[in-house]
Amino acid sequence: MLPVPDGLVAVVKRDCPTCNLVAPVLAELARDDEKVTVVSQDDPSFPDGMTVVDDRDLDVSFALDLDTVPTLLRVENGDEIGRVVGWSRDTWQEFTGRDALGDGLPEHRPGCASRTQDPAIAEAHAVAQITPRLRSRTVTLGSDEDDAEACFARGWTDGLPVVPPTPERVARMLIGTTRAPEDVVAVVPPDLVECTVEKVAANAVMAGCRPEYLPIVLATVEAACTDEFNMHGLLATTWFAGPVVVVNGPAARAVGMNSGVNAMGQGNRANASIGRALQLVVRNVGGGRPGEIDRATLGQPGKYTFCFAEDEAGSPWEPLHVERGFGRDTSTVTLFAGEGPRGIIDQLSREPESLARSFAWCLRTTTHPKIAIAFDAMLVVSPEHARVFREAGWTKARLHEELNALLQLDGKDMVRGAGGIAEGLPEVLADATLPKFRDGGLLIVHAGGGAGLFSAIIGGWASGAGGSQAVTREVGT
Amino acid sequence: MSQRVLLDPTGELAPTTRARAARPASLDGKVVGLLDIAKARGNVFLDRVEEQLAGRGLTVKRFAKPTFTKPAPIDLRHEIATQCDVVIEALAD
Predict the structure, then answer these.
(1) Which of A97, A332, A426, A467 has a 20 to 30 A CA-CA distance from A450?
(2) Is A172 part of the contact surface with chain B (CB cutoff 8 Å)?
(3) What is the ipTM of this complex?
């Protein structure tokens, strides 16, 4: 039910030349016994001599979902049955069923933007709509309390300062999604707490996100809280790993994520804050804190945030999300339980066979050269290394095949005691040939700056159904 | 100065405190559960514990988690709670 009466409804503003142009037409329609309601966005004395609905607060205009003024609508039984925008004599005549409307006026004139399209006004209106729906407990700060220090004092931070989650900031963050604040996104371990969109938004504020990042953050939280990804175990392990987020598809580009120079490093707000928001959700909503459920022996700096985009445009291969069954134009997040990245140098290989051997040797060292199958890995191939494969016509599948062949390891070198090293696999495997990675246990993505014959390995964690499996989720709205 | 208000970003849990089950003065007549969390060599440790307890005439029941990386399934926890008086869990590595 629209907040306007049945009949014709015209929405105008004095600040619009076309609205001034059509003002006599509105008076003309009203004189003809037509029920005409005029809604004025900026001045209740405009149009002169007419009774208007004062809509300076824009409640009516927002309810009518306007782009342009003048907009002429026809309302029947509380519902809109049609609208025309701007001024066009033919269209207005047809719409109103009149002849010879607007005598002396030009044939047509485009309208102006409705005030509801002003970004600052649209944002303020959305904040005003969302704020009363927020359900989180409010925390009132002491008059002498510094707000950043207050967040530290309440245990809400990862050790770095956070943006204090005021109701206004959380409401503004929620503009970034079409989802309702009270929607449950996931059940977050370790405390198994139902986490709402609002709670994700509060943590995204603290992490430094912009509202347009929120759908990506929501997808990361969903992916992290699946049984396959096993965030509980990943948090609790003494191993180094934490969630690594790879973003694919148009959303990564739309929010300005970095897939190029220093892709896995500092300096890009979206990369930094999306990964951080996930960690803050796990900490604050899930209750996963270092020294409590997080038992990492050493941890690693990627547990503050570890999120980057794949360089799809420059890649010789299909992107990660396409390989994992999604459309190229779909935006996704892929979560991988990973350590910090380690570098591979190979500045001399110009043949793909040689470069693949370099990769394989380095991949063998993940966790320990004498441990196989139990841990996955992600290989991040840089543009200069990717060029070697592109020029040789190697597909990603070919590289997977070649690496798999190169990483079939001789059990006698892998067993306990071999090489004078106690660590290794049980002796019964001495006669076996063992793959370094389980089937599907190696992920390959393309990222990085244009200079540097370096690639990276992100070592994984306990793999498969008994540990963590990479999870890809579509980014919603 | 206007009041500054933040929204609580936490799960807002108010955990209830539950008293621990009373410690038995003796294991005589008790059923002891041994939970293997599926960490390497946990079974070696629990085999020895079972041997010792059985040698004292106690009833011992063995349980195992499917994987050490995930919390014990609810059914397993229920099974242990209903069948045993005490439980020993092997956190080996």
Answers:
(1) A332
(2) no
(3) 0.86
